Every structure is written in structure tokens, then in C-alpha cells.
């Protein structure tokens, strides 16, 4: 009699997770008189998001914050986008969900 080990899809998923890294980049456009960097940073800390990179560009009278975070899932990223948008009605927020494989995944 042979015995079969029970298979669960989560076994494949956990092995696969070690081979990729998930990051989210938030593109936030605001006017010069609107939110401060401190308010954005406070929102990120509340979400327990680790900031990989934060670039601020000035274009005309607006500032664009390009913030790449690690350590949160897609659902948390969507919630964080909603939180950013609720800080001020005039703010524009877009989020990119990115998966990094291979050598890029090793840079955790």
C-alpha cells in the first residue's frame, strides 16, 4: 500500500513567494498649498508600509510625490490609496502594483 501526501495549493504559493517581491508605487499630485510631506509620511506609518524610495518633483505650481513602498499587499495598497485621496479632495493619487522576480526579488 502506498501513501500519498496531501497536497494543498498554499504549499506552492509559499514556495513561490520566496522568489518574488511585491512593491507599490504611489503617484500623488498636489498643489503647492495642499498637503505637506509630513501628512503623507504619517499616513504611510499608520499603514506599516516600508518606504523604498520617495521622489518629489515640482512641475509648475504642483508637486508630484512618487513613493515606492514594500511590505504591504494589494488590498492594503488600495486602502492606502483611499486614505491618501481622503486627506484632501484636490489630491490625485494613482498606485502601481509591481512584482519583482529573480535578482530584483533578492533586494529585500
Could you give a quick summary of the protein structure above?
With 108 residues, this protein is of the alpha+beta class. It has four helices and four strands.
If you had to describe this structure to a student in words, what would you say it looks like?
The chain has one domain: Alpha-Beta Plaits (2-Layer Sandwich), CATH 3.30.70. The chain contains 4 helices and 4 strands; from the N terminus they run αβαββαβα. The chain has helices at residues 9-17, 37-46, 74-87, 103-106, and strands at 20-31, 50-59, 62-70, 92-101. A 4-stranded antiparallel sheet has the order 2-3-1-4. α2 runs antiparallel to α3. The radius of gyration is 18 Å and the shape is globular. It starts with 8 loop residues before the first helix and ends with a helix.
Amino acid at each position: 500500500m502506498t501513501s500519498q501526501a496531501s497536497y494543498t495549493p498554499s504549499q506552492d504559493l509559499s514556495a513561490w513567494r520566496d522568489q518574488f517581491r511585491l512593491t507599490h508605487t504611489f503617484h500623488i499630485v498636489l498643489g503647492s498649498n495642499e498637503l505637506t510631506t509630513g501628512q503623507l509620511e504619517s499616513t504611510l506609518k499608520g499603514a506599516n508600509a516600508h518606504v523604498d524610495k520617495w521622489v518629489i518633483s515640482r512641475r509648475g505650481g504642483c508637486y508630484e510625490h512618487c513613493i515606492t513602498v514594500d511590505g504591504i499587499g494589494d488590498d492594503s495598497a488600495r486602502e492606502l490609496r483611499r486614505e491618501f485621496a481622503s486627506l484632501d479632495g484636490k489630491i490625485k493619487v494613482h498606485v502601481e502594483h509591481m512584482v519583482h522576480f529573480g535578482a530584483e526579488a533578492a533586494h529585500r
